[in-house]
Design goal:
Elements lengths: L21 E5 L2 E4 L4 E4 L14 H13 L8 H13 L5 E5 L2 H16 L3 E5 L6 H4 L2 E2 L11 E2 L12 E3 L5 H10 L3 E6 L8 H14 L3 E6 L10 H6 L5 E4 L10 E5 L1 H4 L15 H16 L2 H22 L6 E6 L1 E9 L4 H13 L2 E2 L14 H20 L13
Parallel strand pairs: 3-15, 5-8, 5-9, 9-10, 10-11
Antiparallel strand pairs: 1-2, 2-3, 4-12, 6-7, 11-12, 13-14
Helix pairs in contact: 1-9, 2-9, 5-6, 10-12
């Protein structure tokens, strides 16, 4: 069966999967209809932090399914989960539950506009697909900022440009000056992976600048939530955001996102009409409670860092051995738990071919995007990835590709 690469079931950044239908996942691996096995570093674009089908999470979800999934008011599992969150984030103990990061960022922006009485938002990073935060769209996840391009997605009205502005640059001084000089600013919405280096200094200076002009800092931790430790990037960077968005890994692959803020602000959600039919859905809450418990008891973030570092080091050693270390490098996307393949002087067509061949060798990596390690990845998965990369290099060189002067593109 050949799948149309524009079919909704085909991830656009992984066109090499267009002919694959996955049937199951376990730990760090996936299997397709033909029984072929793949090591998965996509992890659902980040949510699968413990591994596919984690037994503790699966058992909690099954238990909740037997007890019902949607009550007319908050049930005990939800109250327990919110208590856990308030223990982790005592200065942001008010919580709103939604299903996706896109929803959560929209809710956070509405809260900020209500608190400040202003409309304008400055955003830094990718914050979901909703109209007001997708246009203009920037290739945010390209490691080389010089290769980023912006475009207006089809079907998005231009009117949002007057309410949401975009900053994408390299210098924190410019970012701080932009915050200070933007009139009537309600909020600065920041994806921490897109802050200028050094990250901690940038985060603190942006928070100070926002407060100077009476705006709120919204920290969108959809990617970094729990992967960097229970306190996430906020704890690592030494800041306390006015509004914090958690998503992706919080429920190990089930749909859940959380907005945290001062309870006096989140209490306004009813007046602000921030609510959906499935806001109190409990299977995702059960999954999140189980995920948090495992992450904390097993110090999963430390394992993710070790595995990511081992993967980066092993891939780079293999590339040096093959004489390609000046063309391809494995790097941490700020943190080793999110490894990235950085290409230099390699044509776009060859990069696309590289990822497609990796799939045929049984390894799933995201092009132009950080990848993710899970608690289920181990030394065997690292070595499998190295063998697949070396086999891909050998295949391509056998066809006259990836030669020392064979490309002109950068990433």
């Amino acid at each position: 069966m050949t799948r149309d690469p524009f079919h909704p079931a085909t991830p656009r950044s992984l066109p090499s999967l267009e002919e694959i239908v996955f049937t199951r996942g376990s730990g760090a691996d996936l299997w397709d209809l033909q029984g072929r096995r793949y090591t998965d570093f996509v992890c659902g674009y980040g949510p699968v932090v413990l591994g596919h089908g984690h037994p503790v999470v699966a058992e909690e979800v099954y238990r909740q399914l037997r007890s019902g999934t949607l009550y007319p008011a908050a049930g005990r599992p939800l109250r327990d989960f919110l208590d856990t969150l308030s223990g982790l984030f005592p200065e942001q103990s008010g919580a709103l539950l939604l299903k996706t990061g896109s929803e959560a960022v929209g809710a956070a922006m509405r809260l900020a506009r209500h608190r400040t009485g202003r409309d304008l938002v400055l955003r830094l990073g990718f914050h979901g697909w909703h109209d007001q935060v997708i246009s203009p769209h920037v290739n945010w996840h390209r490691f080389d900022h010089s290769q980023r391009r912006s475009a207006r997605p089809l079907g998005v009205p231009g009117i949002y440009g007057s309410a949401v502005r975009v900053w994408h640059g390299d210098e924190v001084d410019d970012l701080v000056e932009t915050v200070r000089s933007t009139p009537d600013l309600a909020a600065v919405v920041v994806d921490p992976v897109e802050l200028p280096l050094p990250l901690a200094d940038s985060a603190k200076r942006v928070l100070e600048a926002a407060h100077e002009v009476g705006a709120l800092l919204v920290l969108d931790e959809s990617k970094t939530c729990l992967r960097l430790g229970p306190g996430g990037a906020q704890e690592r960077l030494g800041v306390t955001a006015d509004v914090l968005v958690l998503g992706k890994a919080i429920a190990n692959g089930l749909p859940l996102a959380v907005v945290l803020a001062d309870p006096s602000l989140t209490a306004q959600s009813r007046r602000l009409r921030i609510r959906g039919t499935f806001s109190n859905e409990l299977t995702s809450v059960a999954a999140a409670s189980a995920t948090l418990r495992v992450l904390r008891e097993e110090k999963v973030h430390e394992r993710l860092e070790r595995t990511g570092t081992a993967l980066i080091d092993a891939v780079n050693a293999a590339l040096r051995s093959d004489g390609l270390d000046d063309r391809i490098a494995a790097v941490p996307y700020h943190w080793p738990c999110m490894p990235y393949l950085h290409f230099r002087n390699v044509a776009e067509t060859e990069r696309t071919d590289f990822y497609a061949r990796l799939v045929r060798h049984g390894v799933l990596l995201l092009p132009n995007h950080m990848n993710f390690v899970s608690a289920a990845h181990g030394e065997a998965h690292v070595q499998h990835a190295v063998r697949a990369i070396r086999a891909t290099v050998q295949d391509m060189r056998g066809e006259g590709l990836l030669e020392p002067h064979g490309g002109t593109g950068n990433e």
